[in-house]
Please model this.
Amino acid sequence: MRAADVIERKRNGGEHTPEELEEFVLGYVRDEVTDYQMAAWCMAVYFNGLSGAETFALTDAMIRSGDTLDVGGALGRKVVDKHSTGGVGDKTSIAVGPIVAACGVPLGKMSGRGLGHTGGTLDKLESIPGFRVELSTDEMIEQLRTVGMAIVGQSDRLVPADKKLYALRDVTATVDIQPLIASSIMSKKLAAGADAIVLDVKVGDGAFMKSLDEARSLAQEMIELGRRAGREVTCLLTDMDQPLGSAVGNALEIREALDTVRGEGPADFTELVLDASARLLAYSDLDIDLTEGRRRAEAAVADGSAVAMYDRWIRAQGGDPDPSALPEAPVRVSVPAPRDGVVGRIGALAVGVAALELGAGRRTKTDPIDHAVGILCFAKRGDSVLAGDDLAEIHARDEASAAAGVQAVLDAYTITDEPPPTHGILLDVLS
Ligand code: URA
Model:
C-alpha cells in the first residue's frame, strides 16, 4: 500500500477496501503513515465521506490497533456504558455513574480530556484533590468488583489509533466529520467490551453536530456500527443550544454533578441524568424496563444511596469527596442583565470559549488547566429577568480575565421580549 494512493482514491471519491483501510490505520500507528498523510486523508473524507462499509472497516481497524477488554467476562455481568459526543457543561457521566452503580449495576468508564471548546470528564475529575485517573485495567476491574464504579483515563493500549488520530483531528479542522466521530466513539466503546451503550448525541451551537438532521444521521451511523458488532445502542439526541445545567468549568461542574446526585441539581441536567441512568438500568442484567429503571434511579437519589456511592467511588480513586476541598477561584464577578425581558438564547459555544479563555480548557495540547475557574449560568433560556439581575457569575483567576469573561458572557446572552419556543433537554431518542 502506498499512502499517497489511498489519499488519492478518497480525494477522487473512490471506495477503500477493508484491507486497504486496515493497512493505512495500522501503518499510521506504526509511524509508517505520517501525520501529514493522515491529515490529508481526513480532509478528503470531509469532502467525500465514507460509505457504511468503509466506516465499519475503519472502526474495526481502529479496534485492531490495540488491545480489547472483557470486563463482562471478568465480572460475570452484562456491561453497560455511556458516551457523549461532547458539549459545554457536560458532566453527565459524573452524576450518572453513582446513580447506576447505587442501583447495583457496575459502571466502568474510560473517559477523555477536553476537545476544542468542550470539556473532558478526566479534566473535571482531576479538580478533586488526590483523585487518580490513571488506573490500570486490573485496578479498574478490582474497583468495579469492590465499589461498583470507576472512571479512568483511556489506557494507551486501547484503540491507540484513536488517541493519535483524535489529537491530529483537533489541530487540522477535521473533528466535525460524521464517519470519523462515529468510528472514534464506537471503536472505544466496542474495544472496552460494552454489551449495551447509551450515546448522548449533543445537538446545537455548542456541539459538533449543529442541526437535528446531522445529529440523527450520526446517531444512525453509530447504531448501525453497534448492530454490525452485535451490541445494543440507544442514542439520546439532546439540546446543546445552551450550556447543560448551570456550571461550566471543572471544579464548578463537579459541585453541580454532586448536587444533582443529591437531588439538588438544575432541572435540565437532572432530567438528562435520570433519563440516561434509567436507560442504562433497563439495558443491564437487572431485567427491568425503562419505567422501573427511572423509578430506581429516582429512588437512589432520594434515599441517599447515590451520594453514598459517589463518596465511596471518589475515595476509592484517592480523592476527597467533600465539596469544600474543591479549588475556588479568587475573583467572582456577576454578569448583570442589561434590560428587562426573557432569555431568548445563550450561545453555548460562546460560553464554552469564554470558560476556555478563563483557563478552564486548553488552547494547545500542553496547556495546564485551571480547575477553579469557570462560569455559572443562572438564567437559562425562557427565564424572565429584570435589568440588573444576575444572569451568570464569572469565577476567574484575576480581575482582567474576569472582565473579559463578563463581556463574553454578556455577548452570549440574548434578552428578548417574546419567550422563545420551549422544549426539553431530550430532543429525540433513536435505537
Ligand atoms: N468524542 C469522541 O470520542 N470522538 C470524536 O471524534 C468526537 C467526540
Observations:
- The first strand starts at residue 80 and ends at 84.
- The mean pLDDT is 95.
- Residues 85-86, 112, 115, 166, 180-181, 184-185 surround uracil (CB under 6 Å).
- The radius of gyration is 21 Å.
